[in-house]
Amino acid sequence: MAPAAPVEAAEAAGLEGAGPAVLTAPVAGGRQDAAMDEDDAAVLVRKAYKEYRSKSLFRKSVGNMVIRGLDMTVRKGTIYGLLGASGCGKTTILKNIVGQDQLTSGEVRTLGRTPGAPGSGVPGSGVGYMPQELALYIGFTIAETFRYFGWLTGVPKEELAQRTAALLKFLDLPPAHCMIGQLSGGQQRRVSFAVALLHQPPLLILDEPTVGVDPILRQRIWDHLMDITADGRTTVIITTHYIEEARQAHTLGLMRQGVLLAEDAPGRLLERYRCANMEEVFLKLSILQARTCPEDDEDAADAHDGNQNRRGSSFVPPAAAPAAAADAERPPSPPAPAAVPASRTPAAKSASSPLASVAFTSDRPQAAWQPWTVNKPSSMSNMTCLLWKHSLWMWRNLPMVAFLVLLPVVQCMLFGMTVGRDPKGLKLAVANDEGGRCPDPVHSRVDSFNCTSPSLLSCRYLAMLKDLEFEPVLYDSVTAAKGAVQKGKAWAAVHFPANFTDSIFARVNDGQHATNETLIGSEVNVWLDNSNSYMSTVMQSDMTYGTIDLLQRTLGHCDYNPAVAGIPVRFETPVYGIVNTEFLDFAAPGCALTLIFFMSMASAVGAILSEKNEGLLDRSLVVGVTMREVMWSHIVIQTLMMILQTIIVLVGFLEVLKIHNDGPLGYIVMLCVLQGFCGMCLGMLVSSLTDNDQEATFVALGSFFPFIVLSGMMWPIEGMHWSLRKMGWALPLTMATTSLRYMMSRGWDPGHAEVLYGFLSTLVWIAIFLASVLFVLRTHKR
Ligand SMILES: Nc1ncnc2c1ncn2[C@@H]1O[C@H](COP(=O)(O)OP(=O)(O)OP(=O)(O)O)[C@@H](O)[C@H]1O
Fold it and tell me: What ipTM does the predicted assembly reach?
């Protein structure tokens, strides 16, 4: 069946009062005011479509068409009320008008130019935007908030105090030294409104400014809006859920499901649709839209067919109807000024435009539009302002900043006290068949050894184990000692044969003639609990080298050649490093760089995301700050912070933990700072690709462990599976870790290729991250 003609549809819907005006009103795709000169429009939207598509790393990209072919015309020097139920796309279209977002297709012209075009003043001082959310930093005072936005919009310093005082009085706000966070919700929204007014922009965009505002103050706000539009200085676009207060606007745009149902003066809308109030007008238009495009929605038809009481449920009824009352009391409007050309009057349009019945008009007078000049502060001024804001933010969050600065101290201490030290106090179950319990170990030392009547070597061995910080516990038999290991009471069972001391001397004296019995009798038997490889390695190493040392000292004491007890390998003075090098020396360079890299990354992500989440970032962008300025200002502050953290980490490692270092300190500091910068750039990239802390945490967690294990910090990269080795070298931390290790342990400088590569790879990664950030900022607009 062919779709019903609009007139039939209207009649079928019971729209007796709709008349021919409704019949010609487009219900989708809005209308074009063809006759209107573009110069008369402060804002023009044509054939606008907007589809939201998630660009988050972690969300499936599902399209949501929010604006569907919307046309909108806002005449200069007027108040334009944009009305519509929650979710119909009002905020979305406003964001496109202020240049905060970009349409999927269609055109927006704000103050005669495309938002964002050079010299357009939008985003910038051409527009005052009050978003729906607070978008102010709650840790600032009202005065600091005004100073911040006044600075960015070029309000002269000498005028700022005067304007601040006037706005506080006008909006009934508490004193300027009050913190935003300590104000009530309504007061906070009024501060937000004041911020939009502060620089007296030619275009004011207010997203529900009167929510939670006292009726009297609400009327004062409307009066003020009428004042500033009356002299033609300012154009206002306002959204509100209080449908009746919107009658005070010159023009109303009734929006539903991403399109404008009608756009006209409130009085004319009421007259045309023969309705008593705007809610009825809206309902009629909604029903018509639902009938004409039933696939779009059935809500309106349901509302009409069913319960009439549900009418306009998305709007708040006019509580005390202050607006209507005020309207009635207001003196009659003065005649329209001559500045509105006759050709653009409603009557003229009726004759010329096929859309005449809904053509742009106003039943309020408009004054001549005042030209304005773009007042754009320099980039340097913006940067200074942002740096001032970041510093103030840090000052207000001093405990958190102190935590970030002191965190490296704690981490260094933790690292030094937990990693790389040999385990102490390991219990050994000892069965000594040589002589039962030994005397006090002090008397069993080698220097008190009597070679003519040797005391028991096994007792000296036990004393040696105590010196190595083992805890020998004597058991009556080998079986009992092994049983202790099986029960987890000891890490090893140690057995000394009955004639251990004699057998040792016989083994040395008999040399090649020593019997098997002598050889076996001179051996200490050890049964290890090998369930912990590191413990086993420590025990094997300590007992082997401890035995050699004990025997060499014993034999030397008794005029034997101590070398007889040695093994035929001599480790000379090391070419690089120290004799008793520890795991700590190996792990420290990688650990220091990892700390610096990830702390810088975390600080950058935290700073940018907190600004993003508070909405302050978007608001700063609307008043003309560029994302590059924001990024660079963060880079400056974060770099200072990172240098401080780097110094703390290096002092902790080199001076407190006394990690061995033979390297050139200047290059070491330079590499650490570059790594911190690299981490910061990665943090910027992560915060520009993610929307919230949760996503950023996933990225940080996801990258942390692979970076650590693949960078060779924990284990030599040469020991990795071959397939991962190449990938490991390609990561930002790997070459830098090797480079720092060579500098510290070998004393090399960047004249050695292995050290130079660490610097070069870090610089390459910085360039990659920065380029990616700039690319994302350019292309990743929502
Ligand atoms: N960044 C975004 N990504 C995806 N969808 C979005 C985004 N912003 C808004 N939307 C969706 O677009 C639709 C219109 O949202 P919008 O905020 O423009 O509505 P609105 O008319 O201003 O509503 P309200 O009066 O409640 O503020 C909603 O369905 C919303 O979920």
Answer: 0.97
